[in-house]
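A reminder from the course coordinator: this example appears on the midterm review sheet, so study it carefully.

Given structure:
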């Protein structure tokens, strides 16, 4: 376009912090979209720390020395049938209003595509131009769809006292033993480190909530992460030893009791449509809400080996809101 300054794309640097926040706040109101007990700049700093190397992950687009577009990415490992796979999700795509519709976001996308270390891209967006971009890049919807169930919190919950459930401030190394066993039934599930879990679920800059854990003989048998915002409670993550419905039930019941006592009116849990925890949720009074969160995946490069869980409506996938940045 004549007279239009050229846009160049580069990695994020710590000195970009304020400019990145300006672009984000010009694009999303409010940001973050959920209640949080810290200033937006602290939430941004938290988010930027999500990747092992933030300065080789997040991207900015510049024109005339001004940052006009940004993309923040969440990079973490998953276990796919026991093999580790690095997965990227683009969490915040934003371009200053006066720069939209000129290919800035597409330019960032081309650049991310070249440089990303990820082997699989997981995406969730309701923004039409991003959906079109994703489709062009080969994204396909997860066939085992990501669907919410919810429960009003006026009742009492059976099983809350059946097992000792305690609140923790941070995860410790024992969580890795639980993880090694708990991942076994799943084809696709997060493969975090203790540090990643503490960053994601135990850092106040990430959101408001709490973590409850169950133990037997000093071993961790399960945990649940709750996030609260705008009068609702979300089960952001839940995991227990395989086949231990007797752990899942008290964890959910204790979480619901605590949310109810805090004045929360409704609890929401989003899971793949076919998932072993759904039965327990229904037994505790959750109903299918039919609110579907669109999730798509694509292989990083054409010709990369296929990952069949993407196309199987009954795939054994463990995916929860805590896998994303929604809450
Ligand atoms: C979504 C968003 C990041 C897109 O950024 P953008 O820079 O406007 O995106 P692009 O310019 O690359 O693409 C937008 C459209 O312009 C078109 N376009 C691309 N290059 C163009 C150019 N040089 N001239 C004219 N149009 C162009 C694209 O084809 C695309 O069309 P489509 O929507 O019909 O598919 C931006 O609109 C935004 O910040 N929105 C608010 C925040 C938000 O909702 N983010 C998404 C959720 S994370």
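Designed residues:
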């Amino acid at each position: 376009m004549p007279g239009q300054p050229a846009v160049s794309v580069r990695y994020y640097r710590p000195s970009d912090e304020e400019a990145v926040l300006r672009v984000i706040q010009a694009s999303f109101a409010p940001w973050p979209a959920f209640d949080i007990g810290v200033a937006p700049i602290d939430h941004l700093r938290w988010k930027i720390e999500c990747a092992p190397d933030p300065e080789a992950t997040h991207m900015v687009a510049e024109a005339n020395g001004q940052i006009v577009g940004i993309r923040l990415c969440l990079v973490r490992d998953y276990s796919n049938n026991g093999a580790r796979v690095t997965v990227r999700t683009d969490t915040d795509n934003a371009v200053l209003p006066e720069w939209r519709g000129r290919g800035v976001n597409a330019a960032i996308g081309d650049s991310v595509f070249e440089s990303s270390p990820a082997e699989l891209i997981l995406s969730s967006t309701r923004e039409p131009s991003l959906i079109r971009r994703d489709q062009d890049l080969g994204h396909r919807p997860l066939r085992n769809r990501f669907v919410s169930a919810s429960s009003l919190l006026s009742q009492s919950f059976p099983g809350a006292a059946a097992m000792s459930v305690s609140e923790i401030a941070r995860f410790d190394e024992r969580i890795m033993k639980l993880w090694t066993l708990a991942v076994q039934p799943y084809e696709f599930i997060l493969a975090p480190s203790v540090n990643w879990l503490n960053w994601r679920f135990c850092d106040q800059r990430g959101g408001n909530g709490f973590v409850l854990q169950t133990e037997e003989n000093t071993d961790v048998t399960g945990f649940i992460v709750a996030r609260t915002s705008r009068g609702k409670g979300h089960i952001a993550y839940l995991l227990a030893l395989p086949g231990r419905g007797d752990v899942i039930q008290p964890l959910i019941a204790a979480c619901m009791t605590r949310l109810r006592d805090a004045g929360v009116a409704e609890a929401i849990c989003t899971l793949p449509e076919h998932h072993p925890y759904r039965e327990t949720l229904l037994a505790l009074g959750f109903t299918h809400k039919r609110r579907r969160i669109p999730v798509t995946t694509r292989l990083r490069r054409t010709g990369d080996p296929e990952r069949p869980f993407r196309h199987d409506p009954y795939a054994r996938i463990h995916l929860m809101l805590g896998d994303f940045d929604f809450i």
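The chain is about 25% helix and 30% strand. The chain has a mean pLDDT of 92.
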